[in-house]
């Protein structure tokens, strides 16, 4: 594949790269992680001021009409800095769901704020026993007098601790695991009946569990018809995560190579030892394979929903998951004991890569999904 960036895409990449490089040194990241928000609100504001939060949206909604490729360019740079801001969750996933399901009034009200960075949104799709099955929804929504009331519990809501709006999947018909009967609602996290339990994730970010007790929600789209949009937008989120993983892998490889060049044993840099050279080559090979699959995922992320799109996205996530975990493990092994210390940034890249491998499905889940698509073809 001859993959060359246009002039505009190259400028976008350089803008994101420069911003991350200037703001996200490791010491600053540690401070952002320890803050109440769990990320840098100033950096989030900068993303909005530079138009990076507006990239995926249409020009009518205040965006730039970017595709999955433009999203990939931003996500890869965020991955290089292991940035903590919920860009994928707010801009790609929440923005995509509102754009696909929302009314004109909802799009105008919500997407304008997301595009400028003034509104940070989160998405609550997972439940305690769902295990990557987004159709396994037990949270319920009932209509009374034209308004909807939600009750249930959602888990691992990344960015939910600071979100101004949270999109919640809830069942309005059918049984648990039925794809039909799932609806999507916009919930104000500060409204009556909504409780958040905030906690830190293993990769230094923050998330929350969401408890709903007759909480009011605003319906997005048609009742009981949201699952197709959830599945489609999850595919766009997977493509974005693949790009982020590639960025994190690239920096982890660079850190490891620099360490092999400088760490000495028996009077010579350990990078002189052939067995370690071979392992470094294997890391780079996995990185390049993951890069190719991330490009594939980005190129078809905005294609129409189809079995072929689903199969290729599953294949991309499977390969990127495997590559990311391999790079993380080798980074730790080749660094030795220093890699396990909290003060060394290599450990944090490894943690983020492991977390990405579990978001929206681990490698076993996507291998099964790919096999199912092949069997149905």
Automatic annotation (TrEMBL):
Residues 6-118 form the Acyl-CoA dehydrogenase/oxidase N-terminal domain. Keywords: FAD, Flavoprotein, Oxidoreductase. It comes from the Bacteria. Its cofactor is FAD. Residues 123-214 form the Acyl-CoA oxidase/dehydrogenase middle domain. InterPro entries: Acyl-CoA_Oxase/DH_mid-dom, Acyl-CoA_Oxase/DH_mid-dom_sf, AcylCo_DH-like_C, AcylCo_DH/oxidase_C, AcylCoA_DH/ox_N, AcylCoA_DH/ox_N_sf, AcylCoA_DH/oxidase_NM_dom_sf. GO terms for molecular function: acyl-CoA dehydrogenase activity; flavin adenine dinucleotide binding. Coiled coil: none annotated. Belongs to the acyl-CoA dehydrogenase family. This is Pimeloyl-CoA dehydrogenase small subunit. It comes from Halopseudomonas pachastrellae.
């Amino acid at each position: 594949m001859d993959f060359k960036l246009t002039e505009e895409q190259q400028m976008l990449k350089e803008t994101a790269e420069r911003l991350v490089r200037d703001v996200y040194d490791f010491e600053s990241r540690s401070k952002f992680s320890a803050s109440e928000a769990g990320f840098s609100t100033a950096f989030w504001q900068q993303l909005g001021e530079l138009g990076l939060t507006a990239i995926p949206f249409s020009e009518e909604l205040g965006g730039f009409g970017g595709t999955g490729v433009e999203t990939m360019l931003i996500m890869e740079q965020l991955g290089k800095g292991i940035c903590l801001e919920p860009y994928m969750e707010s801009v790609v996933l929440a923005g995509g769901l509102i754009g696909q399901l929302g009314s004109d009034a909802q799009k105008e009200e919500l997407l304008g704020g997301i595009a400028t960075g003034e509104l940070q949104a989160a998405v609550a799709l997972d439940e305690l026993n769902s295990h990557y099955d987004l159709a396994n929804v037990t949270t319920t929504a009932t209509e009374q007098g034209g308004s909807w009331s939600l009750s249930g519990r959602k888990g691992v809501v990344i960015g939910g601790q600071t979100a101004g709006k949270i999109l919640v999947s809830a069942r309005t018909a059918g049984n648990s695991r039925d794809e039909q009967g799932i609806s999507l609602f916009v919930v104000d996290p500060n409204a009556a009946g909504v409780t958040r339990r905030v906690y830190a994730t293993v990769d230094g970010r923050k998330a929350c569990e969401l408890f709903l007790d007759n909480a009011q929600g605003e319906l997005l789209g048609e009742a009981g018809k949201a699952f197709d949009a959830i599945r489609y937008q999850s595919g766009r989120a997977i493509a974005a995560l693949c790009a982020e993983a590639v960025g994190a892998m690239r920096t982890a490889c660079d850190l490891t190579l620099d360490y092999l060049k400088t760490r000495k044993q028996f009077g010579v840099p350990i990078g002189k030892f052939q067995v370690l050279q071979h392992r470094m080559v294997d890391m780079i090979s996995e990185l390049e394979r993951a890069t190719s699959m991330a490009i594939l995922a980005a190129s078809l992320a905005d294609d129409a929903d189809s079995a072929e799109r689903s199969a290729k996205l599953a294949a991309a996530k499977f390969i990127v998951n495997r590559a990311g975990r391999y790079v993380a493990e080798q980074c730790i092994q080749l660094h030795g004991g220093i890699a396990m210390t909290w003060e060394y940034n290599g450990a944090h890249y490894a943690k983020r890569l492991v977390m990405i491998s579990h978001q929206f499905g681990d490698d076993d889940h996507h291998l099964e999904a790919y096999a199912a698509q092949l069997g149905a073809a």
